[in-house]
Design a protein that fits this description.
Elements: E1 2-9, H1 12-31, E2 35-42, E3 49-56, H2 59-66, H3 72-79, E4 86-92
Antiparallel strand pairs: 1-3, 1-4, 2-3
Helix pairs in contact: 1-3
């Protein structure tokens, strides 16, 4: 498994539309067998900052499986207006340092 983090800066005036776009885009993520889960979080202390966390089966599953599938075009169409607002988009390997209550 690999985790993709996408950090956005979205002005308050666009926040509602941004979240609505991901309400639409999530259907493509849910439909992909390569996507294991996701969450969109909004910063409590700086509400114009968002982080999308997506768990993929692998980097290849994301880049080759999802991005070359029929699920990617509708996903991109939904979030395209917000691509210029991306500050970071990277894959991270999960380490052994983790805990959940």
């Amino acid at each position: 498994m690999i985790v993709e983090y996408i950090r956005y800066t979205i002005p308050e005036t666009r926040a509602q539309d941004f979240e609505a776009a991901y309400q639409t885009a999530q259907e493509s993520l849910r439909a992909s067998p390569h996507c294991l889960g996701f969450e969109l979080s909004r910063c409590h202390d700086a509400p114009d900052h968002y982080i999308l966390r997506i768990q993929w089966d692998s980097a290849e599953g994301h880049m080759q499986g999802f991005r070359k599938s029929a699920h990617f075009p509708p996903f991109l169409a939904a979030i395209r207006p917000y691509v210029p607002d991306i500050e970071e988009m990277r894959h991270y390997d999960v380490t052994a340092v983790q805990w959940t209550r």
